[in-house]
Each structure stands twice: as C-alpha cells, then as structure tokens.
Amino acid sequence: MRSGTKTGEDRPQGLWGQLRRPPGGRDARIMLLAQFLDRSGTGVWAAGCVLYFTFVIGLDARQLGVLLGAAGVAGIAGSPLAGHLAGRFPVRRLLIAAHLLRLGTLCALLVVTRYEVLLAVVALTHLGDRAAKTLEMLFATRVAGERRATYQALARSSANAGYALGAGVAAIGLAVGTREAYQALILANALSFLAAAILVRRTGEPREPGRVAARTGDPTDRPPAPSSPWRDRGYLRFVLLDIPMNLDDSILSVGLPLWLVTRTDAPHALVPAFLVINTVLVVALQLRVSARVGQPRQAAGAVAVYGLTLSACCVLLALSTGAGAWAASAGLLLAAVLATAAELMRSVSSWELAVSLAPERARASYLGVAGMSQSVQKSAGPLLLTGAVMPAGPAGWIVLGAAVTALSVVQRGSALRRLQAMDAGAPEMVKHRA
C-alpha cells in the first residue's frame, strides 16, 4: 500500500501520533502516562537525594557510599523477584504493589533519621524501583505484542521527558536549599508513585501470550511446566554479556563529568549539557531507531553497532586529554552524542533480545533475570570507571572501548545461534548448549 493512502489500519506517524494511539490501545496509553509521572517524580528525587542525605541528614562520604551501595544490591534482587512473582500473580496487581511500596518508603524518609533505618528504607525503595521497571517491561510484552519495540521507544521517550521535567522541578527546591524544600521534593516523588498506582489500577490485566487452558482430566493437553532461567546457560550468558552492553549509562553519568573536571581543560559549566544532549536526542530519535530494529536478528546486529559506537566514544574521551579547552569541549560533547547513540541502540537491542530469547511460557521469570543486567551495571559500572579505567588515563578508555566491542561481537553471535536453534524447534539444544 502506498504511504500516502490512509486507512483505519494505518499506524499513526510521529511521536505524538504514536503516543495517542500506542501499540496496546487504551491500556498502553494509560501505562505510558503512569510511567511519565513515575519518572517525573524520580527525576525530582534523583537530582536532590545526595544533597539531602549530606546536608539535611548529615551523612559523611563513607556512610553515603554504603547507603547507595546497599540500595544498588537491593535493586539487583528486585528484577528476578518481580519476574518470579509475575509467573504466579497478576502483573497489574504486582505493579500497583510496587508503586505503593515506594510510596510508603519515600514517606518514611520524611521522618526517619537513624542511619540503620535509612539503609533499610532506601534499599526497599530501590528494590521497588527495579521490580516496577521489570513489571512494566512484562506488561509491555503482553499488551504490545509484536509491536513491543515501538512501545519501548514510546516508553523511553516519555520517561526521558519525565526525567527532564523532574530535574527542572528539583532545581527550584535545590535553589531554596532548606530542609522543608528538600522534604517537598521527597513528597513530590511519593505523590508521583501514588498517581502511577491509581493509573495502573485503571488498566486491565494483560493476557499472557502462549498460555492455553488445559482440559481437566487429560494431562496430555496441559502445557509443559516452564523451565527455569537459572538453569538455562544460554540465556544466562546473554544476561551476563548484557551487563557491559549497559556501560553507556555510567559513562554518561559518571565518566564524562569526572573526566572533564579531572583530565581536561573544558569548562565545568559544560557538564549539564551532557544530560541535555542525552534527553533531547532520546526523545527525538528513539522512535525512529526502534522502527529500524523491530526484529530479533536486527536487534542482534544492533548489539555490534552498540560496541563500535561506544568504542568511538571512548576514543574521543582518550583524545580529549591534553587538548585545549575548545578542542576538549568539542570532543566531550561529541562523546556525549555517541554515548547517547549507543544508548539508543542498546535500549532496543537489549529489550528485544531479552524477550525473543526467552521461552513464552516462562517469559515472566526470564525477563526478571534479564533485568538484573542493568542493576548490576549501575552498581559495578561506576566502580569500574573510577577504580580502573580513569586511573589508567587515556589508555584505560581505549582498552574499555576495545573490550566492549569484542564482547558485543560475542553477544551478537551467541544471540543469533540461539535464535536459529529456537526457530529450528530444538528446546534442549537451546537450554543446554546455546
């Protein structure tokens, strides 16, 4: 059919049109709004949490490091826990519970001052964060079906817009700087979770694909019990290799700013531009990139592109040392663009492969395990950059880029072999050899 012909089956064009009529219809539209509000609140709190714990609660650097480290570990557990529970309980109810858990823990921060209690509260908050993200991912796979890549693009665009809005609101509170202002930021985040829970309650429970009802009394008609992702070596290899495929996040948020202020002559005022570049490009381009990576084999190819793009970003970081202020500034801004381009590739490839490489009947538990890769990277990535890469100087960035590129090629080959085995209908080979 010609592109100029319009029918009722035509998909809406452009970001706004897709947001109005997303894959999954009304439930998807409500969920996207819930995610936008959720991320807006998260952006508010993320911009001010370190300052709150430092200047209001009075934590020193060591205590703050332990607090954030414990939160990261709890976040790692949130994804598989959510996947495990989603195989037994309705996704919609679990997501509401995750939002309410975060609502309760954020409200507790308004009154908690003891360090031991803070550890538990912040850990529970991060566990709920990761659980909610996994459940949103599972909701999308069931609601959007084959157009899940488009849904993911819309979700990321709306989420980044939410983060930007939240950061803008946080700037007001940080400018005031009083205890009451910080508490208002916490309350704003808590209210975003309440609003998200109310919106999720208006959606219907998504139907799980591949699930069929067995006739009673006839065990031969019952579907086989789902396999465990913890025994699937091929899928665990994918999850393990997916950890370094998320390093763009730490490079953008930790590597670029620290490298600028410690190893280059670029002005410090350039640091906020990295976030602006990332936010604008993700909102503007995520949908277009996802349209080109809608199939599993295309996603596997995008992994290799990710490695090459991130390697180019690392090369620019290495070259920025010793350059003048203008040259370093230009190189770092281009590095931010490349890190964002890598993120665009990663967001669709990691998502599509996590779904496509999992058996349908056990998809919930598999996606829960897949969600660990981002959580592990968020904990280990900053330590890798600050403890090994950056102390090694420019050579550290070159080695990191080469390593990620090599691992991306391994990930691509492993994914393609598993997809081929799945297409051939060889579950045992997928399970034990892939």
Shape: globular
How much of the residues is beta strand, in percent? under 5%
Number of helices: 17
Helix and strand string, N-terminal first?
HHHHHHHHHHHHHHHHH
- In the predicted model, the low-confidence regions spanning at least 5 consecutive residues are 1-12, 210-226, 427-434
How many whole angstroms does the radius of gyration measure? 22 Å
Distance between the termini: 40 Å
Going by helix content, strand content and strand pairing, the class is mainly alpha
Mean pLDDT metric: 84
What profile does the largest beta sheet have? none
Helical content band: over 70%
DSSP E strands, number: 0
3D structure, described in words:
By secondary structure, the chain is mainly α. Helices cover 77% and strands 0% of the residues. The chain has helices at residues 14-20, 25-46, 49-57, 61-86, 91-109, 115-144, 148-176, 179-201, 233-242, 247-263, 271-292, 296-320, 325-356, 363-370, 372-389, 394-423, 427-432. Helix 2 packs antiparallel against helix 8, helix 4 (61-86) runs antiparallel to helix 14 and helix 7 (148-176) runs antiparallel to helix 8. The radius of gyration is 22 Å and the shape is globular.
Give the helices and strands, then pairings.
Elements: H1 14-20, H2 25-46, H3 49-57, H4 61-86, H5 91-109, H6 115-144, H7 148-176, H8 179-201, H9 233-242, H10 247-263, H11 271-292, H12 296-320, H13 325-356, H14 363-370, H15 372-389, H16 394-423, H17 427-432
Helix pairs in contact: 2-6, 2-7, 2-8, 4-6, 4-14, 4-15, 5-6, 5-8, 6-7, 6-14, 7-8, 7-11, 7-13, 9-16, 10-11, 10-13, 10-15, 11-13, 12-13, 12-16
